[in-house]
């Protein structure tokens, strides 16, 4: 009888010990193109997510009285909308607690419906097409300024600061490229500039001779390209070979450390002006510098563009879970929507009623000696 009692007591003690050490696994999905022409940007995003997850697990997080372990479920959408929706459905089927991504607007927008239907919060750290947060979904958020702000600012800058009177616009016909080019054109025309050419290519093109020859005849002061660095680099190289001396402008898609390499060293000092959604100044700059140094140490790679925004997006999502005392998407989603004043490495994050970041900053850059150099932070 005594032996039986001891067994029961021992079993109860083991159960309590097990409960004390039990961890809830919280799955965070991440989607970006980790294959294809902009895989370097996709890996940059994924590294930002891994850095946040690793730090959270090292720190130890308790949600609703339970210790949690975060697990990153990373998917590759190759920048393709069909693959993007397939990745989204896979994450939904895996019962992820939230999603950070996708990178491209063209994959983020169709995927957002799948997450909305499943009630899973989605924060994009890089999709800038305005449509993303204007579909009426309660699950969509972003931590960067949209194309209305980014493209419009660049358009005005082209006319007012660069004194561009004649402007040529090219886009890659993706949701991002065409969207940012449209907003650039509106901004330039609103500032009094004349758009003398509007051309398009695609996001996998390598030969722009016909387009650039046509543009050269119109003698533009500025050429704007809506698209990514993998296409912008060869385009700059071919502009030089054709003797086109115009300034070259683009959005955050071209504003990378890789651009001079992709242009085979043909980027002249001050020739390229681009903008990155987001920007830090003053004391905040130290936090970003520290992040970049820690990122380099961890991955032996420099930050390309969006890794800090991915990092902040993961942390904002987890902060909402902690505040809601729940990892249940239905319970922490309303708290996430009310995010106001979260201090991240990219600045202060607050969401408006659509899920857009409030008072989003932009950083203007140029290139000198093959290195990206900051011009100014604007809001």
Offer a few descriptive terms:
disordered N terminus, 44% helix, 12 helices, 2 domains, Rossmann fold, six-stranded mixed β-sheet, 15 strands, seven-stranded mixed β-sheet, 379 residues, alpha/beta
Runs in which pLDDT lies below 50 for 5 or more consecutive residues are 1-20
Helix content: 40-55%
Largest sheet properties: 7 strands, mixed
Helix and strand sequence: HEHEEHEHEEHEHEHEHEHEHHHEEEE
The total count of strands amounts to: 15
| Tally of helical runs | 12
The CATH class assignment of the largest domain is Alpha Beta
Structural class estimated from helices and strands: alpha/beta
Question: What is the approximate shape?
Answer: elongated
Whole-number total of structural domains: 2
CATH topology of the largest domain: Rossmann fold
CATH architecture of the largest domain: 3-Layer(aba) Sandwich
Q: What is the average of the pLDDT values?
A: 92
Fourth-tier CATH superfamily name of the largest domain:
Response regulator
Keywords: Amino-acid transport, Signal, Transport
Protein name: Branched-chain amino acid ABC transporter substrate-binding protein
Domain Leucine-binding protein: 26-370
Pfam families: Peripla_BP_6
Description:
This protein is an alpha/beta fold. Helix content is about 45%, strand content about 20%. The chain is built from 12 helices and 15 strands. The protein has a 7-stranded mixed sheet, covered by helices on one side. A 6-stranded mixed sheet has the order 2-3-1-4-5-6, with helices on both faces. Helix 2 packs parallel to helix 11 and helix 3 (about 80-95) packs parallel to helix 4 (about 105-120).
């Amino acid at each position: 009888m005594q032996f039986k009692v001891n067994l029961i007591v021992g079993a109860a003690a083991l159960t309590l010990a097990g409960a004390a050490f039990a961890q809830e696994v919280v799955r965070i999905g991440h989607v970006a193109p980790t294959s294809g022409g902009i895989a370097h940007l996709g890996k940059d995003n994924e590294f930002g997510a891994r850095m946040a997850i690793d730090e959270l697990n090292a720190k130890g997080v308790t949600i609703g009285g339970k210790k949690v372990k975060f697990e990153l479920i990373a998917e590759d959408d190759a920048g393709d909308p069909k693959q993007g929706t397939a990745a989204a459905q896979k994450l939904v089927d895996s019962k992820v607690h939230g999603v950070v991504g996708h990178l491209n607007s063209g994959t983020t927008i169709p995927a957002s419906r799948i997450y909305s239907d499943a009630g899973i919060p989605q924060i994009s750290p890089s999709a800038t097409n305005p449509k993303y947060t204007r579909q009426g979904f309660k699950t969509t958020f972003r931590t960067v300024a949209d194309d209305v702000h980014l493209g419009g600012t660049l358009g005005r800058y082209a006319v007012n600061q660069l004194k561009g009177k004649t402007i040529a616009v090219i886009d890659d016909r993706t949701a991002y490229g065409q969207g940012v080019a449209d907003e650039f054109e509106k901004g330039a025309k609103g500032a009094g500039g004349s758009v003398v050419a509007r051309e398009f290519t695609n996001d996998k093109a390598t030969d722009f001779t016909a387009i650039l020859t046509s543009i050269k005849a119109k003698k533009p002061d500025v050429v704007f390209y809506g698209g990514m660095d993998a296409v912008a680099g060869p385009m700059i190289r071919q502009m030089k070979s054709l003797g086109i001396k115009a300034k070259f402008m683009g959005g955050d898609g071209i504003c990378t450390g890789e651009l001079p390499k992709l242009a085979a060293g043909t980027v002249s000092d001050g020739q390229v002006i681009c903008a990155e959604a987001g920007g830090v100044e003053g004391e905040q700059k130290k936090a970003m510098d520290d992040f970049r140094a820690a990122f380099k140490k961890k991955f032996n790679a420099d930050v390309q563009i969006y890794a800090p925004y991915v990092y902040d997006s993961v942390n904002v999502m987890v902060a909402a879970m902690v505040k809601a005392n729940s990892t249940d998407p239905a319970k922490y989603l309303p708290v996430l929507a009310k995010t106001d004043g979260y201090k991240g490495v990219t600045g202060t994050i607050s969401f408006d009623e659509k899920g857009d970041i409030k008072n989003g900053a932009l950083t203007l850059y140029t290139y000198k000696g093959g290195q990206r150099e900051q011009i100014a932070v604007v809001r």
